[in-house]
Amino acid sequence: MEEVRFNVPNSDDPSLAVWTFRMWFLGLISVVLLSFLNTFFGYRSQPLVVSMISVQVATLPLGKFMAKVLPTIKFRINGFGDRHLSLNPGPFNIKEHVLISIFANAGSAFGNGTAYAIEQVLGYGWAGMLRKYVVDPGHMWWPSSVVQVSLFSPENGSGMSGLTLDWSAVASFLGSPLVTPFFAIANVTLDLFNSQGHFYNVSAIVNHNLQIDLQEYEKQGRANLSVFFAITYGIGFAPIVATLSHVALFNGREIYEQIKATRTGKEDIHTRMMKKYKDIPNCWYQVLLVASFVLALALCIFMKDQVQLPWWGLIFAAALALIFTLPISIINYGHHQSGLNIITEYVMGVISPGKPIANVCFKTYGYMSMTQAVSFLNDFKLGHYMKIPPRSMFLTLGTIIAGTTNIAVAWWLLDTVENICNPKLLPRNSPWTCPNDELLFDASVIWGLIGPKRIFGTLGNYGALNWLFLVGALGPLIVWLLQRAFPAHKWISYIHFPVLLGSTASMPPATTVNFNSWIIVGIIFNYFIRKYHNNWWKRYNYILSAALDAGLAFMGVLIYLSLTTHNITLHWWGASCDHCDLATCPTAKGILVDGCPLH
């Protein structure tokens, strides 16, 4: 891979210290700060994601400063044997820097207060069990890891035509378009309504046990989705099956060869260099899995009235996460993880309809633990590239701290921001609209409370969308057959159905503004500039992506503290995401909405 070959060093210095006081001090501060900021800004209309890259930029001067001012005196602590410790073992080194960033990455995993510590640790266990099949193979490269390596390397320092120059809108939902390969880029209103087009009164159909009241539901009639929402869900059905189909057809042999390689010793240069360090025994991850699973099981048994999820539902959710983690990790080229959230919601909605809390819990343990596993595998890949001793990577403390901070900040915001997440009661242009949480609420109503049978089944209006499951299964098969029939046409191999269809998983809450701007920027950099100015692209593309992400994070915090807290709003040309005041108005005749014309 050109990207890996140019950015990842083929050298290592095993003498560098890793678990230093500086690493723990800066790592703990970073994970708390990132978790706080991502939760805080995650409730805003355009969520600001403060990523690991921001920590990389900020902690480098701090680490060098600590290396200059901390005392170098060595000392011993009872219980640590003859080992000598020091607050300052020498110059701040690259491995400390990498570990601080990986430690802090737990704080950027989720920014909406929904990342619970148990499911995060569960995901850590899945990642550890699968790392041999995702981290060690040289051809399994992840663009986001290459961006981080390029920073560490000493060689590099809604509408059909909606556009924006606001980088937070370009990258907030889909990630940086500068790090997504061109083939992945090329492949790539939010409410329920009644039959009259008015907002569906969800509160009326929920009883005191947080389950559906069928009599009230029959009075209101069927729930209807917006056209945009319905199409998004329909397209979301296809990549679920397409992921399994694509991986079986295009990567099945690679997976088989990797299983053989773990026994025969077939390794690339980075894997060979990592052999000098002690590996993490699988039993460590097995203990994590068992411990987190037992805690989750205890919640399901002893708090069954609150969580509504039976013990067998937890086992089923864990099985789905295990099945999908490997194939989704393999196709994780473009930040777009196929909608396992949809399949977990769909399955639980069919098995146990009318229970929204059970559906959310099933999604948490099935989908979110898988997402966490993929995130941790990304961290493992970064550590693999940077030759970090594997046992030093076993940092579950950051995960627990991040999950706890997420929940604490979410509770604080809910108690202090009046009418947060309720756009109907918020002042005009208020940023506290919570698009991610609104989506989670609507999903819990669709899949959990009302149930897929009354939406996508015989009792609903959208049964035809189920045919897209078949489309997802056949799409990769057609591409595979065409590739075998016309091997000279290399472009056929770049048709990637899981990425092509899976990119819509962010939509909603992402809109056409986010997608259009992201696609244009990505094509310019990863096709035209890469093709016609390759030397510039190799040297500066990933650095520019990191700079934009880090600059956005720092300026977002600065602007909020200096201007937003004083009710000062900046109106810059090109930064607006919605250029039409009537963009959210209904187009059907006879529907009256405040502030909109009546057709």
UniProtKB/TrEMBL annotation:
GO terms for cellular component: membrane. Its main location: membrane. The chain crosses the membrane at residues 23-43, 227-250, 283-304, 310-331, 394-414, 464-482, 513-529, 541-563. This is Oligopeptide transporter 2-like. It is found in: Membrane. One of its GO terms (molecular function) is oligopeptide transmembrane transporter activity. Keywords: Membrane, Peptide transport, Protein transport, Transmembrane, Transmembrane helix, Transport. Belongs to the oligopeptide OPT transporter (TC 2.A.67.1) family. The keyword Transmembrane applies. It comes from the Eukaryota. Pfam families: OPT (PF03169). The keyword DNA repair does not apply. NCBIfam families: OPT_sfam. GO terms for biological process: protein transport. It is a multi-pass membrane protein. InterPro entries: Oligpept_transpt, OPT.
